[in-house]
Amino acid sequence: MAPSNSCPTEIRLSEHIDGELSENASREIEEHLAHCEACNLVYSSMKATQDLLLEHMPYMDPPDSMRQELLGTISQLQQDTRPWHSAYSLPSLWSSFRIFPLKSRTLAFASIFVVFLVAMISVYNFQRRIDDKRTLAQIERIKTEWAVQDLSRNPFDINGARLQLNSENPFRPYLNER
Amino acid sequence: METTGKRRSPLPLKKAEEESSDRIDFQVDRAKQGDLGAFSEIYDQYVGRIYNYIYRMVGSREDAEDITQDTFRLVYTNLKYLRDHSHFIQWLYKIARNEVYKNRRKTRVKPESLEDSSTGILQVLKSEDLEGNPENKLLSVELGKKFKAVLDSLPMNYKETLILATLQELSYHEISQILGRSLSSVKTDVYRARIIISEKMRKYLTSR
Asked: Which chain A residues touch B56 with a CB distance below 8 Å?
């Protein structure tokens, strides 16, 4: 039977083999194939190709060794791409530290704490000494800024003291009044 | 005569292997953050398909293993650039395809021609009794070899499209996204591949 105008295109038959058509379209084609020899011939020929493919190229499981090898490589890639400082990050340090027994870890923490405490106290004392030195230096500077003749050691003693005044003397108005 | 248009599934269908777009999204997100466990899940889910696709394209187990490993290595390193997780499978196939073509450029394997292997089969057919089972089995094996030779003699785009549509069970739409070609071009290539194979196998079988 020669192909007629109602015959679907061969590409359409190919789509039907792959299940690409809608349900209605597939049903129409199946009904057509039931009575059209020409289309049936083409369809069977293409279907046979499909069957040969499925028969002679079956699915194969990939080898298990591939998985281990790949995950090992990727794990190595992860190590290589980490920034250098990430090896010293808290989580990685903690995970390295956790291999030691609990007693050793407690002793280590206590020692670190004591050392830290001693260091803090030392730093505090040192800072205080520096502050004291600064205060003394400041006082000396104030004394030299005030040029005093016949003064007692107390620069704030204005009774009977003649002050060599400079413009920055805050007591100037009081002395003028006297 | 079987008239159904539904494909036979060549892949083992297990419930655990059914794709869920939400699950893929979640796995890809975790894998992007460096979760090796999530990446292992992705690998387990897709390695079968990718390995079989690559093997069917290159024809060598060793090459298929190497290319599959390279593919997944590239998937891991480039996952951070993937924006649309819904097209993950297409993206995966694209990478695999690029690796296959890279391998082809390196090795330049000449496909076995039909003429070279046809004499072997004809000799078998002439000399052996064709009624018994061992001979039929031999014929089946030889037919398989001939069929593979015919498949390898196809232009690469026809062979690739046919494999993706038939053996990998991808829709034409997915194939067009992977290959970067139009839907009509994919339909035409699948059809032409079938016609060429049918014609060559018909000629071969009638010449026996």
From this structure: 57
Cβ–Cβ < 8 Å for B34, A65: no
Confidence of residue A86 (pLDDT cuts 50, 70, 90): low
The pair of structure tokens assigned to A156 is 């704030």
Q: A29 at the B interface (CB within 8 A)? A: yes
Q: Do B7 and A18 touch (CB under 8 A)?
A: yes
> In this predicted model, what pLDDT tens digit does every residue of B144-155 receive, in sequence order?
888 888 998 999
For residue B41, how many other CB atoms are within 10 A of its CB?
17
* Distance, CA of A152 to CA of B189 (rounded, Å): 113
Tokens of B19: 């794709």
Q: Does A34 touch chain B (CB under 8 A)?
A: yes
**Mean pLDDT, chain A, whole residue set:** 77
The structure tokens 């002439």 sit at: B126
- Comparing B79 with B127, the larger pLDDT belongs to B79
Q: What angle do CA B167, B170, B174 make, to 5 degrees?
A: 150
Residues of chain A with Cβ-Cβ distance to B11 below 8 Å are 59
Let me know: does B84 contact B177? Beta carbons within 8 Å: no
CB of A139 closer than 8 Å to CB of A156: no
Interface of B with A in 142-181 (CB under 8 A): 143-144, 147-148, 151, 162-163, 165-167, 171-172
Write down the ipTM of this complex. Answer: 0.73
Minimal Cα–Cα distance from B123 to chain A, Å? 22
**Residue in the structure block whose two tokens are 């390695």:** B47
Question: Cα distance from A17 to chain B (closest Cα, Å)?
Answer: 4
Segment among A8-17, A46-55, B27-36 with least mean pLDDT: B27-36
3-state class of B8 per DSSP? Answer: coil
Contact (Cβ atoms closer than 8 angstroms) between residue A21 and residue B5: yes
- What is the secondary structure of A43-63 as a DSSP string? HHHHHHHHHHHHHHS---PPP
Instruction: Provide the pLDDT confidence category of residue B4 given band limits of 50, 70 and 90.
Output: very low
CA of A101 vs chain B CAs: smallest distance (Å): 29
Taking the C-alpha atoms of residue A85 and residue A95, their distance in angstroms, rounded to an integer, is: 15
Contact between residue B162 and residue B194 where contact means Cβ atoms under 8 Å apart: yes
Chain B nearest-CA distance from A73, in A, is 8
